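Everyone, describe these structure tokens:
***
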Amino acid sequence: MTDFSKTEINIDKKDYSNYRILIVSTSWNREIIDVMQKDAISELKGFNVNHIDSVEVPGAFELSQAAEKFISSYDAILALGTIIKGETYHFEVLAHETARSLSQVSISNKKPVIFGVLTTDNELQAKQRAEVKGSEYAKSLLMMIDLFSKDAAV
């Protein structure tokens, strides 16, 4: 069995209490998303993030649309979803377009947008990965907030 233990992402303890975070999540595979979202919120609160809002969209394709709509009101966005491979090419198209469009929202708005979308071969893989990914995505978001807040000259 594959080990899905957490990846170590080291974040300095500092005051994140003034940051506004939005979690955009999908309604598809809600039971899987709920595990990641709960884990992400717990991790963010552990770093004193006090302002966390959430909105739900139908599926992965709509994540970037909501991110674009709300990004001006937030410091960073965490997009959570899962795309489970089926029998058609739809999986590849959806996964690629979701990643590309979320990246574009980040680039054009100069704010972090984290791709927290599981792309798996089956539901079991998604459930196994969901148990550890929420906190990893939250730490990635904090790391990118730190990076985006630095001066351009490093």
